[in-house]
């Protein structure tokens, strides 16, 4: 830091910040220094926000190189593609589909991965190529395979990686299928969030191998999972911290409009009215959403905001059978609820939230996941695999 208490700009300043927070560990510092982030960032990017999600206005190196460099050496993600490439210009698109990830997240996941020189490493989601180059510096290019589904992203990433002096195997293909040609792997790194761990990745990880991936629930929230592969084909391990990543393309959700849940009628249609003392605010944070999502089945929320600070929390199920609304009005202690369909979705959310509270509101360090590579079954747990979380709904 400078004498005025602000972070020094540039690669050294970012390194100091990451070391200070613990995201960058001393053994990864030489790798960071050998593989500058700026080599893997295109001219036009949309910087993320330091807090929360979303992207700011575009920054273009060709017209404002100083602002571009500041963005590159800030601890923020940089969106590099919108709408699977079906987008042009400097305005934001509908959905971000590729980014150069937030450096603190990059290096905390690499630390969790624990790749060592000589390891065989599989990366799912090449993106801009920075992770693949960092891994190549760490373990040697010959030990790294990186898979990217988008041909154009793969092409530009390959060019950047080779220009930086590395030559891992770069593959265009379905990340969910992995790359069996060089299996088994000692380490597998997934850089897109999953709601289900692809069984192919577990099958291609050797006993004792480690898989690190962002895991997201249908309800919301997300965390980095660090799973260790057992001899029996089952992978298990804790969540190491919160995460918000773009979804693996093969697992993207396609939501139906609320009108389809109401059968063409006006709200509240056939919904049954009740009241609740649990504020929608209590179930809207990243951690409680994640805890609720570990317990519930196929339930997802959406908030409809109004100009006076109030909002309606909508709950729907992926089968398009059931819905619920909860109206939040600031200052109130009871909130109006309507529920329709065979499932009482708000009751399910309340049940899940109550369990989480009774467990002492466990954070990511106490929560974990076991995945059976043969059946694909996912079992979340609290404190140890012997204590599975209850299933609700």
Provide the CATH superfamily of the largest domain.
Answer: Vaccinia Virus protein VP39
Per DSSP E runs of 2 or more residues, the count of β-strands stands at 18
Biggest β-sheet: strands ordered side by side in the sheet? 7-6-5-8-9-10-11-17-18
Major sheet size, sense and barrel closure: 9 strands, mixed
Layout of SSEs?
Layout (H helix, E strand, L loop, with lengths): L9 H12 L7 H6 L9 E4 L11 E2 L4 H8 L5 E5 L13 E5 L2 H11 L7 E4 L5 H10 L4 E5 L2 H13 L5 E4 L12 E6 L8 H5 L1 E12 L5 E8 L4 E9 L15 H4 L10 E5 L9 H10 L3 E7 L5 E7 L5 E6 L6 E6 L4 H14 L8 E6 L5 E5 L11
Parallel strand pairs: 5-6, 5-8, 6-7, 8-9
Antiparallel strand pairs: 1-2, 1-3, 3-4, 9-10, 10-11, 11-17, 12-16, 13-14, 14-15, 15-16, 17-18
Helix pairs in contact: 9-10
